[in-house]
Design brief:
single chain; 471 residues; alpha/beta; eight-stranded parallel β-barrel
């Protein structure tokens, strides 16, 4: 690794903070999300307390400093700054909170990497406007970005406009504050969300650059390397289509400033048009020229095979858009939640992204969810260590053998907090937090074995990955 390589971890503040109605914050789409499990019972975890990061962030940052972090990605919760989102009212207490957090990081020698929109759109924008389905929400978002970027222009170098933007169609409520209107088909819904989220990203890039031309700005995708299930030609084609829809489309537009021909042809064949005018496209083009790097999350790889019973080629494409006929990869293991563990897939992702876009890459999420057990104040999470060993080795190989330019590696995550499905049981952190799905627990912090292992990794700049920690 070069001396500027950034080591650290990342979290989503809306999933970690708690304090969901404190200091003027408004409800957001994650606060109001209800998850119903197969048992029919709603999850018992909620955002009123979560991991209590709101009140304990200094303690949590102290752990990051102890581990040797040089970078930390977090998200500024939109509804903590603009509680309603559509009235222009700014909550100063929210800005002051994040400024204190940023100052604490800088004092600890940790570079803040700030994400905008991470499952935290004000719920008012969802209920009144259907989120990013409404173009007005795009402009309110740009106004929000202008306020945040203006406040922290002298303290934050690295910005990410939008968390996992390519998942808006597959998780619209959390990612875009939207639901598919009754009677609307998949293709027009995808086209609207794609158009409006791309415009929102572009406006955010330009707002940040207007405030600080030297800021490093990125878009972000959730990336899963996609393999054909077999070498049958139809499966290879299916994998290419799945890769385009799920991995490449959003980055193609961000980097090239225009929609790829395969996507415009796909929309045309379905009788759908993008809701973008010439001025919008100029904004998207201008933002593409100002993009400094690409950020992405990587947790697992996936497979694709040709869907059965397709009436024609258009039906084939539509089924690939909807992720039809996905199958488990028989050559890799999975965690308890079925997420396939594929370290080599991260190298595949790095090679594919760098060769396609020729932009510096930043791995801003990578980790494994485990149902960790606290025993006598300790957590022996060798499974997590093994996961990171494989993935970091493949990052090193991508740099050393493939010539990929990687800015840094951020694990998911520094501490335990609510998963995207509001589970404390699915833990990702290096620090165990005594909090259960039923709301019990002291919230006390306990460093896991992986905490000390990752500290050693950072100190060695990624060269010492041995699981030989005495714990």
């Amino acid at each position: 690794m070069n001396k500027e390589f950034l080591w650290g971890a990342a979290l989503s503040n809306v999933q970690a903070e708690g304090a969901y109605l404190e200091d003027g914050k408004g409800l957001n789409v994650y606060d109001t999300l209800e998850i119903r499990f197969e048992t029919g019972q709603n999850t018992l975890s909620d955002t009123s307390v979560a991991a209590d990061h709101y009140h304990r962030f200094k303690e949590d940052i102290a752990h990051m400093k102890e581990m040797g972090f040089t970078a930390y990605r977090f998200s500024i919760v939109w509804s903590r700054i603009h509680p309603n989102g559509d009235d222009g009212l700014v909550n100063e207490a929210g800005l002051a909170y994040y400024e204190e957090m940023i100052d604490e990081l800088l004092a600890a020698g940790i570079e803040p990497v700030v994400s905008l929109v991470h499952f935290d759109m004000p719920d008012h924008l969802r209920t009144e406007y259907n989120g990013f389905m409404d173009r007005r929400v795009v402009d309110w978002y740009a106004g929000h970005v202008a306020v945040v970027a203006g406040r922290f222009r002298d303290k934050v170098k690295y910005w990410i406009t939008y968390n996992e933007m390519n998942t808006a169609f597959y998780g619209p409520r959390l990612v875009a504050g939207a639901e598919k209107p009754e009677g609307m088909g998949d293709v027009p819904f995808h086209a609207l969300l794609t158009a409006h989220t791309q415009l929102a990203h572009a406006k955010a890039v330009l707002e940040i650059k207007k405030t600080n031309p030297d800021a490093m700005v990125a878009g972000m995708d959730a990336y899963a390397s996609i393999y054909p299930l077999t070498c049958r030609p139809e499966d290879v084609l299916a994998a290419q289509m799945a890769d385009d829809f799920r991995n490449n489309l959003t980055f193609d537009v961000m980097v090239n400033g225009e929609f790829p021909s395969w996507y415009t042809k796909f929309l045309h064949n379905n009788g759908v048009e993008l809701d973008l005018n010439a001025e919008d496209m100029q904004t998207i083009k201008e933002a593409s020229k100002r993009l400094d790097y690409l950020a992405f999350s990587y947790y697992q790889s996936d497979t694709a095979c040709a869907p059965a019973g397709c009436a024609d080629q258009l039906d084939f494409e539509n089924k690939m858009l909807a992720c039809a006929d996905r199958n488990a990869n028989p050559y890799v293991k999975a965690n308890a939640w079925g997420w396939q563990i594929d370290p080599v897939g991260l190298r595949v992702a790095l090679k594919a992204l760098y060769e396609r876009y020729h932009k510096p890459l930043f791995i801003v999420e990578n980790g494994i969810g485990i149902d960790d057990r606290l025993e006598n104040g300790k957590v022996y999470d060798d499974e997590r260590i093994a996961y990171y060993q494989g993935h970091i080795r493949n990052v090193t190989d991508a740099i050393d053998y493939d010539g990929v330019e990687v800015l840094g590696y951020l694990a998911w995550s520094p501490i335990d907090f609510l998963s995207s499905h509001k589970e404390m049981r699915k833990r990702y952190g290096f620090v165990y937090i005594d909090r259960n799905d039923d709301g019990t627990g002291s919230l006390e912090r306990f460093p896991k074995k992986s905490y000390y292992w990752y500290k050693k990794v950072i100190a060695s700049d990624g060269t010492d990955l041995e699981d030989d920690i005495e714990y």
